[in-house]
Design brief:
single chain, 485 residues, alpha+beta, Ubiquitin-like (UB roll), DNA polymerase, domain 1, Uridine Diphospho-n-acetylenolpyruvylglucosamine Reductase, domain 3, 4 domains, five-stranded mixed β-sheet, five-stranded antiparallel β-sheet, 16 helices, 20 strands, globular
Length: 485
């Protein structure tokens, strides 16, 4: 079966490209479209940014700026891709290109194509209603010449412009398509099932498979370790895995829902989850990364598990024979190990509604504000009775144990006690019974233990003012107007 996609409005059919070929490699080496640059090859710099038209998400069709260095070519089957070379229409440059020129936002030019493609997405968004969202749109693009101010000016110029051009027409007319694919080349097999029956058949036929959806983690194995997989099974074409739907007790989120869509949805429905996702990674990364991928990766420093532990999430595992429910507390069985059995996939994540009056928050501590891995992360939920005593406490932590884990001893100290500074201090001390952090390059054991306790103290202080504390809209520079630090 051939791989088909549209590249700068031209249909491309490929039968002899290895499934582990990244889009960046394909553009530069196979199509000689060298406007898309290679910088870090790990999704951090944004030099390789292109745009993909996605009609499958729960929030409707949209152009997504993505890192082409991590995106495996078969994941683009039956999709539309545009690079910086393809933006010119009817002889005129795109508004994103014009705005960057007029703002003097390019010097050496190496970062410019990626910046333009992030501006391209911003041009067609209808939700850029706060300054921080524009900063967030651009945080995945590094530039070492221009100093960011003119790039930010260009972003404000085009954000939400939504011109009535051909790109807007393509977005408006986009509809979900059958993206099923069974593709073999260079002794590698890539299957993208469109139904569960096809999925479980592929799992049975390829016992040596690896699952892939956004490839934001697996892609690093390709670019940094030069890995070549005999069999890859993509979960990105199963419609059931890309839905967010209301249930009697809350919501069910499909495992293949992208984190950018989850963040937008959670802003009003699950503020603690939206708060954690804001600094999960760049928009390019969140356009590829999925909720199921972050959970099944089972990293002790994954960002979504701590807050989902606090929110009492339950996972739905599905096989050909059955469906079963797994409390998230029981999902992580060891370092990068889960309770999924052979032949099972994670299909859905059930998130209950926040209890009335609950206090809840989420925290991520890292060396950089944007695009960094957690040293310590935490999700916290506390319920009080009418007298101010704790009737439920759920404290989820990452980075302080071999798996994301709840702080059982600290929770026990809180439960039944007054929600007070003295109680919180006793619970903070009890965290030493819950966790024995390790020393590594992201932080010493002492540092991690100290931060874990301080996050609990910070949660108490924040919830004195707001039961669901929100992140402030932060400035784009290190100096605020008026010279205040």
């Amino acid at each position: 079966m051939a791989l088909r996609f549209w590249l700068n409005d031209r249909l491309v059919v490929e039968r002899d490209v290895a499934p582990t070929t990244t889009l960046l490699e394909y553009l530069r080496q196979h199509r000689h479209l060298t406007g898309t640059k290679e910088g870090c090859a790990e999704g951090d710099c944004g030099a390789c940014t292109v745009a993909v038209l996605d009609a499958d998400g729960p929030l409707g069709p949209k152009w997504r700026a993505v890192d082409s260095c991590l995106l495996l070519l078969p994941l683009l089957h039956e999709r539309r891709v545009v690079t910086v070379e393809g933006l010119k229409q009817h002889g005129g440059y795109h508004p994103a290109q014009e705005a960057l020129v007029q703002a003097l936002g390019s010097q050496c030019g190496y970062c410019t194509p990626g910046v333009v493609m992030s501006l391209f997405e911003a041009c067609y968004r209808d939700d850029l209603d706060e300054d921080w969202k524009i900063d967030d749109q651009m945080c995945g693009n590094l530039c070492r010449c221009t100093g960011y101010r003119p790039i930010r000016d260009a972003a404000h110029e085009v954000a939400g412009l939504r011109p009535a051009d051909g790109w807007a027409k393509q977005k408006r007319k986009a509809r979900p398509a059958d993206r099923g694919l069974d593709y073999t080349s260079h002794n590698q097999h890539f299957v993208q099932p469109a139904t569960f029956d096809e999925l479980f058949t592929a799992i049975a036929r390829h016992p040596d498979h690896r699952f892939v959806t956004g490839a934001t983690d697996l892609g690093l194995e390709v670019t940094k370790r030069h890995a070549r997989f005999p069999s890859l099974i993509s979960l990105g074409a199963l419609p059931e895995l890309q839905q967010i739907r209301a249930t009697d007790g809350g919501w069910s989120v499909g495992a293949a829902v992208r984190l950018s869509d989850l963040e937008a949805w959670a802003a009003d429905t699950q503020p603690p989850l939206a708060r954690m996702l804001r600094y999960f990674g760049s928009r390019q990364i969140k356009h590829g990364a999925t909720l199921g991928g972050n959970l099944c990766n089972a990293s002790p420093i994954g960002d979504t598990p701590p807050v989902l532990l606090a929110l009492q999430a339950t996972l739905i595992a599905r096989s050909r024979q059955s469906t079963r429910r797994i409390p998230l507390d029981a999902f992580f069985t060891g370092y990068r190990q889960t309770a999924l059995e052979p032949g099972e996939i994670l299909a859905e994540v059930e998130i209950p509604r926040l209890p009335a009056g609950a206090l809840a928050g989420a925290y991520k501590v890292s060396k950089r504000r944007e695009l960094d891995i957690s040293a310590v992360a935490a999700g916290m939920l506390v319920r009080l009775d009418d007298g101010g005593r704790v009737i439920e406490a759920r404290l989820g932590y990452g980075g302080v144990a071999a798996t994301p884990k709840r702080a059982a001893h600290a929770e026990a100290v809180l439960t039944g006690a007054p929600w007070s500074e003295a109680t919180v201090e006793r619970a903070a001390a009890a965290l030493s019974e819950d966790f024995t952090p390790i020393d590594d390059h992201r932080g010493s054991a002492w540092y991690r233990a100290t931060v874990a306790a301080n996050l609990l103290r910070g949660f108490y202080l924040e919830t004195q003012q707001d039961r669901l504390p929100a992140l402030p809209a932060r400035p784009s520079g290190t100096v605020l107007p008026g010279g205040a630090p």
